[in-house]
Specification:
This protein is α/β, with parallel strands linked by helices. 45% of the residues lie in helices and 21% in strands.
Length: 373
């Protein structure tokens, strides 16, 4: 009997010891997991933010932060730095490095991006700039800006392929417009279409009025020709400074009813009267609530650049996870999969953003998709 009791108590003791060791092991595992909590990742935004600068830098900054928050998966800390010139950029980089920053979003311009490139490389910092200059792209410098000339090609090719053969360009005076004119003209030749006329205007209302009137008269003459079946197409430059005046005159001469008005995304400005336009953009933005949310923070005109800023933040946040390393993040950026942003589907080739450009119609204030890229 005593032997049986001894066996029983030995069993109880063994079970208790196993349970004790198991509890201690579990505590150790919990402790290790707690130690593996991800460190806070430091991100810098470099934008012109001072009151002396246009409000756009501050708006882009807010939208980048909104995108970062929307895609958040791990702990990040974001610091915004006010830079509008190279000296400010150099001073900001001292602070960026001191904070052990891993990712920089911005700057807007290629010269400022170039001015921080060496320090970023020396400190293993990834830069995703909103510049569109491919010359500054490098292994750790990604060019996120869009290519206006690719949008021009997308538009011209689409309309020429759909039997629109007569084009007019309405452009501000200057060297850049001469380049655009030549580009459009070269496309016309390849597509067996005709650049009937290029109208150039200066930054005064009288010159803009005369240029639009000249374009209107040419359109009237073309529409009277019996062998021309499709409306003439008028290409507008992305001249945000004068677009309101141009739209005033387009409305005055009913030009958007007699011709097709086209341009890149930046011609889609707020205008109180309905002007019918067709422009390059992204269908993704039509299915997003970001424009409405932007209005809540005071951004009433939401341009393609605003969409890009939001995408820059959200794409960055999406590619950051609890196992972040610089090489892992670079792998996501260089991957074959596209990021579906509100500014279009984006992937990088040789550190340069490649975008699809949908063609969108705005008619009587209502948006619809004409052609998907």
């Amino acid at each position: 009997m005593n032997q049986i009791k001894q066996i029983f108590w030995n069993g109880i003791l063994a079970f208790s010891l196993v349970s004790l060791f198991a509890c201690q092991a579990n505590k150790e595992i919990v402790s290790v997991e707690e130690q593996r909590k991800p460190e806070t990742l430091e991100i810098a935004i470099l934008m012109p933010l001072s009151k002396e600068q246009p409000a756009l830098g501050s708006q882009y900054n807010q939208l980048i932060k909104m995108g970062l928050e929307d895609g958040l998966k791990t702990n990040i800390h974001v610091t915004s730095y006010d830079i509008s010139d190279e000296q400010q950029a150099i001073v900001a980089m001292d602070k960026v490095v001191a904070r052990n920053t891993k990712i920089i979003l911005g700057p807007l311009y290629s010269n400022l991006t170039s001015s921080i490139a060496k320090v970023a490389e020396e400190n293993d910092i990834i830069v995703i700039t909103m510049s569109n200059n491919p010359a500054i792209a490098d292994r750790r410098i990604f060019v996120f800006g869009h290519a206006p000339f690719k949008q021009v090609a997308r538009l011209i090719n689409y309309f020429a392929d759909n039997d629109y053969k007569h084009f007019i360009s309405l452009l501000p005076s200057g060297k850049h417009s001469q380049t655009v004119k030549q580009l459009v003209q070269d496309m016309m030749i390849r597509k067996n279409a005709t650049l009937v006329r290029s109208e150039f205007y200066s930054n005064v209302p009288e010159s803009i009025d005369q240029a639009v009137l000249n374009a209107s008269n040419i359109v009237d003459n073309l529409n009277e020709m019996e062998d021309i079946l499709a409306k003439p197409v008028i290409y507008l430059s992305d001249d945000t400074k004068n677009l309101n005046l141009i739209f005033n005159n387009i409305h005055k001469y009913y030009l958007d009813k007699k011709a097709v008005i086209i341009g890149d995304n930046r011609i889609d400005i707020y205008y109180p009267k309905p002007i019918n336009i067709i422009f390059t953009g992204s269908v993704n933005i039509l299915n997003s609530n970001v424009v409405e949310r932007a209005k809540d923070i005071g951004i009433n005109h939401f341009s393609f650049m605003h969409a890009m800023a939001y995408d820059l933040g959200k794409m960055t946040s999406k590619y950051i996870d609890t196992q972040f390393t610089v090489e892992r993040f670079l792998g996501f950026l260089n991957g074959k999969s596209s990021y579906a942003g509100i500014s279009g589907n984006i992937h990088f080739t040789d550190s340069i953003a490649q975008r699809g450009y949908d063609i969108i119609k705005k008619e009587d204030g209502v948006y619809s998709v004409v052609d998907l890229d």
